[in-house]
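Minutes, project huddle
Topic: does the predicted pose make sense with magnesium ion bound?
PN asked that the exact inputs be recorded in the minutes so nobody has to dig through chat later. Recorded below.
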Amino acid sequence: KARGVTVSYQGVPAVREVGLDLHGGQVTALMGRNGSGKSSLLWALQGSGPRTSGTVEVTPAADGKAPGDPHTMAPALARRAVGLVPQTPSDLLYLESVRQELAQADRESAVAGPGAGTARALLDRLAPGIDGATHPRDLSEGQKLALVLAIQLSAAPRVLLLDEPTRGLDYRAKTELIRIVGTLAGEGRAVVIATHDVEFVARAADRVVVMAQGDVVADGPTRDVIVASPVFAPQTAKILAPLPFLTVDQVTSALDRLATGPAGPGSGADA
Ligand SMILES: Nc1ncnc2c1ncn2[C@@H]1O[C@H](COP(=O)(O)OP(=O)(O)O)[C@@H](O)[C@H]1O
Ligand SMILES: [Mg+2]
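Predicted holo structure (tokens), as shared on screen:
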């Protein structure tokens, strides 16, 4: 729960009095032009970035602990409250091998307490088969993302923030990321993804928050927000407007329903 969050650099505001409630189980896309304040907001929510004013409150876990401000929590608790995968995931990788990074994450998560998984098991779920001896710099973009995600997830954070994670990912890796994000939301975590990738948003997000010059200028269900904007509308929506379809999958299932006859479930408005 963020209230009145402002981030200024040398007196120039990059985020202006943003209020935002994030909910467990919900995937939120954070959109907006370069420089609109997305990264600054994410780092302020996570607690290690600067916050000039305002409040941030996170309920750390379902263990009865009182909500707290990740900026002032003990590091181990903060890791369980909010995880952030930065725009350049390798910024968080500083050891000599994948194995060392995973072991380090497990040590930190052991401090973080129960509920934490092992980082290796998480990595194998995200990107199976990476040799532990590999130097992190030799991983593909998708593998680096998976490694940093595994490190963050090993603390089982309630809120997971991803800063432009689809950069450098091919279609297959994006589809995998969509599956992972869906799983995290299914576990009751709040997920926020800063991205310019409208096709990814159409497939992955429940909700879209749009920033412009530090302000939140739109916030609502994905369909309402991205179809309302010619800049954000995915190709499928542009081609089929005014029909209410965002993704090829939605069109396919509507056509399947048509094929099974007008009395089939879900026919009617969509058909
Ligand atoms: N460390 C910093 N020092 C000074 N200005 C910054 C810093 N980080 C970001 N800014 C400025 O803050 C504004 C918002 O940037 P940012 O949060 O990175 O936006 P986005 O992630 O949407 O591209 C931009 O004008 C940017 O130049
Ligand atoms: Mg950014």
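Observations noted during the meeting:
- Residues 234-271 form one domain.
- The two ends are 39 Å apart (CA to CA).
No decisions taken; revisit at the next huddle.
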